[in-house]
Amino acid sequence: MSPRPRMKMLAVSIGVALAQWGSGAAFADSAVGVDMANGNDLNPPGRSAIPRPMADGGYDTVRRSPTGQLYGVPYDVETEPNQTEGGWQYTGGVEGGALGGNGDTKNALFRKYKDLKNGGYLNYFNIEADKADTGNYMSAFGGGTGQADQFYGMQFGRYNDWKMKLFYNETQHVFSTNWRLLMNGEGTGNLTTGLAAPVAVTTGTFAAGAANYVGAASTCTAAAPCWKYTDALGVTKTYSNAAASGAINGIGGVANAAGVVVAGPLQSNMALAISNKLAATPDSELSLVRKKGGGRFDKTITDNWKGYFSYTQEARQGSRPFSFTQGNNLSTEIAEPIDYTTHDFLAGIQYADRLTQANLRFSASLFRNNISTLNVQYPLLSPGVNAAGTGVAGPYAAIQTATFDLYPDNNAFNLKGEFARSMPDFLHGRFNAALSFGTSQQDDALLAPISAAQLRNLQANGYYNPALATNILGTVANLGYAAGTLNINNWIDPQTALSQTTSKQRIDTALLDLGLSVKPVDALSMKGTLRYYDSANKGGYMAYNPLTGQFGRGPNDGNGAFEAIVGLQPGTLPKTAGDCYIPPGFTANALTNTCQFNLVFNNGSNIPVNGQARSTQQLNYGLSGDYDLSNTSSINAALEREEFNRNFRERDKTWEDKFKLGYVNRGWGDATLRTSYEVDNKRGSEYRYRTWEDLGTWLPGLTPAEQVAAAQALAVNPADPKYAGYVALAAGLFNRYSYYFRKYDQADRDQNIFNLRLNYQAREDLDLGLAVQMKDIKYPNSFYGLESDKQDSVSLEANYQPVSGSNIYASYGYQRGSKSMKLNSGVAGVNACTLPNVAALGYVACSDTTTGLDGARPYTSAWKMNSDDRNNVIGLGFQTKIGAMQFGVDYTYSSSTTDIGYTFGSTALSAVPATQAAAALIAGSALPSMTFVQQTLSLNLLIPVSKRLSIRLYDRIELGGVTDWHYDGVVHNAVTNYDLGATQLDSGSMGYRANVIGFFIQYKL
């Protein structure tokens, strides 16, 4: 008997077998599972989707219906396979040719995940072989050779003994094809503007109106320097401290001799230099490529025991857009460098007999970021901030470099055991259990508040001399500090300026999953489940500088100016030790007694001090049953309760009850019906919306009751130095959080889900299908935040296969989703839940819709946002014979539309100019729709030349269009006057039209 059917069954199942290679848990890898089907855009199933002629004149047409069901006929079983002298029988094929047309279209939407360059193209190859007398076999396939979406797979081994699987694939991700390259060093950890004329500081006395001097008369010193800049036209000018930022950047207008702005932005400045450079820079591509490969070895040890081991490695290299904002809203786009490597290991052993199955599995995932930090030179001159929070050029504008700490190296390990036992003598029962333990860790080196890159910049501008014992950054009085209190040396060494030198982050997890299924009577099946999951966060971080005794964020080199230093209030001298609160385990600075804890703010914002280690425990338990009403119909029901316990969250505990009822009828004439309805209700413990621990600003060692006591003491004696700064803290927090605000993952929630699936066999060769889902989610007590979330979906399918080699299918899917968010309780006069004595400070603890003192707007200024999404997908296709040829057409249409609207209270826009208020009111109902439409038409004509040789002609027409009001009216590739200055390097997604033509020769071994 020919082994050909066995070989062909191997070919059909190889994609499923290969899926196991990438199925191990890869906790540090976002791409886990993508190797379920190795393939690309021209070969989506992971094997050639092109029909091949058979001896009887039919075609090997393996196609997928919209539901995923495979329709097809077996390979040609009449053709004898090739055979070697050693007894190996083999078969295979190859298809190669060329692509033409405009597959090279430079469009990010078209090229996002595929690579269809013009030129020679090896589309697909495969070979399968086995040896009947030994049971050995091998199979290999691949395609897209040399492209950025190429793929390969190979399997070899001995039936029922051992097997080895290998794979390699690539996937590109194109983010932009109209990117303008502003920064030098893109793709590395150091980005510089590359402009020929840097800004430098200078000293001297200048008179108003002096040659090549801009600003009022000024005497410039090292502490308060002027700024010298050679512009794009080669003209060198000196700018006064006050005039420097706007004049050099060209975003603040032209100043006269007195320093008064009298005209629009300058044209010969840094902004013009940037615009000129971008105008002369061609569009480029911003993308990354993911390369992943690995293997798995399986061995049958005995009839009952099997073992396996696998290893995969993934490398991602390239760049992607990254938002970058320097001090005071000067913003631009930069390219974040991507150079990641992930190693995944998986090993396990399996046991199975007639009644018992058991598995033990170990997995490890090691993520490595080969670029640990990103240093960025500011494209524009960054203004500093004085004590009043006013943007000025100032000496603090010397900070012209930002440093970002990129994703850290991390490791994840997991050990999981599974056990299942059939119990035929106990109600035909079956017991299953799973137990696993895992840990995720990273210990990245922390950066000093002033990075090495910024230190070099300060030294180059004359603000730092390592030989001096004390280095003052300009005139400290500009920020309201007493002279001599800001010492750069205290903030540059991570070994001494931080509470810890590495992150020391770790999360341990444990899982227990139990289940018992029984069948007390023939018509009834029941199952009980219990699942407990514990996530223990053992990290956390205290922002504390042992050199100064100060808590909170210190100098910030990523914001263009030094933030206010926590522990010293602007304009005041250090407090005495007796006036300080010192958290357990920490000490005050011995020289200055500087120990106020998180009580000083810059620009009114609270500064986080303690990063809490937040842990969660999850418990699920439930009971389900299935009862047969007849031989063809049944009802099923399930009841489940889910409980979450959290620490350092607004709610300590939430619980959700879920009830699901279903009905199945498999004998309803020529139809099969499945339907279900689910009701879920989530509630929880008291929602603590303004506790210090919830907001990341609490005082360690103070219980919530003690925090209230502190508020009460402050209300009685606000002048008590022990509570200095508490007023600012209370105002900053109380004015930002409303009592009625609810984070959606902890908010009360009511959810209803309806599902229906109907399959109908209209004829022996015609199948019809209908699927419906309706989901309605409400947040009944979230008067401030997400209010409702609805989603309705429906799909229709038809499949018609009258004869072998012919198939017609059609599908339509529609989905609509809507969300509503309230920005106020919307109830007039509500003022509830006031904490004791806090009102004496002038604040209220709950939503005050009358005065809005707590940050919630009064009822008349409430506003609401609604979003509405609609999606349509149509699929059509057919395969048919034309004489000896096979002709196929596939067409897909997809569209999505998003509408966003706002409604406003009568006084919501009272604080903005009338013209802007009118525009906003109009926009509330007149924002244009955001749309995306894509159409793809693929034509295939297979012309057999002989039994083994065929010619295939291919044509793919693809259209795409996108409209997005976020990009409407935005000036690209130039410095604009949005906010205080912005540079848009990407023009956004654009429509396209592409026609890819292919000519291939297919040879069957």
Task: Offer a concise description of the structure.
By secondary structure, this protein is mostly beta strands. Helices cover 9% and strands 46% of the residues. The strands form 10 sheets. The protein has a 26-stranded antiparallel beta barrel. It has a 4-stranded mixed beta sheet with strand order 12-16-17-14.
Q: Strand percentage, roughly?
A: over 45%
Low-confidence stretches: 1-34, 59-78, 385-393, 472-485, 558-581, 590-606, 690-702, 711-718, 721-736, 825-857
Annotation, overall tally of beta strands = 50
Supply the number of helical segments: 10
Average pLDDT, all residues: 76
Q: Roughly how much helix do the residues carry, as a percent range?
A: under 10%
Major pleated sheet: 26 strands, antiparallel, barrel
Class from helix and strand fractions: mainly beta
Q: Evaluate the radius of gyration.
A: 34 Å
Q: How far is the first residue's CA from the last residue's CA?
A: 20 Å
What is the molecular shape? globular
Give me the secondary-structure topology.
Layout: H1 4-19, E1 52-53, E2 59-60, E3 63-64, E4 70-71, E5 82-83, E6 88-101, H2 108-111, E7 119-131, E8 136-143, E9 151-158, E10 162-180, E11 190-191, E12 200-202, E13 204-206, E14 213-214, E15 218-220, E16 226-230, E17 236-239, H3 244-249, E18 254-255, E19 261-263, H4 270-279, E20 283-300, E21 305-326, E22 330-352, E23 356-369, E24 373-377, E25 384-385, E26 391-392, E27 401-405, E28 410-423, E29 429-442, H5 452-460, H6 494-497, E30 505-521, E31 524-537, E32 541-542, E33 544-545, E34 550-551, E35 610-611, E36 616-628, E37 633-646, E38 653-668, E39 671-684, H7 692-695, H8 704-716, H9 726-734, E40 749-763, E41 766-778, E42 784-800, E43 807-823, E44 863-882, E45 885-904, H10 914-926, E46 930-944, E47 949-963, E48 975-976, E49 982-983, E50 992-1004
Parallel strand pairs: 11-24, 14-17, 22-49
Antiparallel strand pairs: 1-2, 3-4, 5-6, 6-7, 6-50, 7-8, 8-9, 9-10, 10-20, 12-16, 13-15, 16-17, 18-19, 20-21, 21-22, 22-23, 23-28, 24-27, 25-26, 28-29, 29-30, 30-31, 31-36, 32-35, 33-34, 36-37, 37-38, 38-39, 39-40, 40-41, 41-42, 42-43, 43-44, 44-45, 45-46, 46-47, 47-50, 48-49
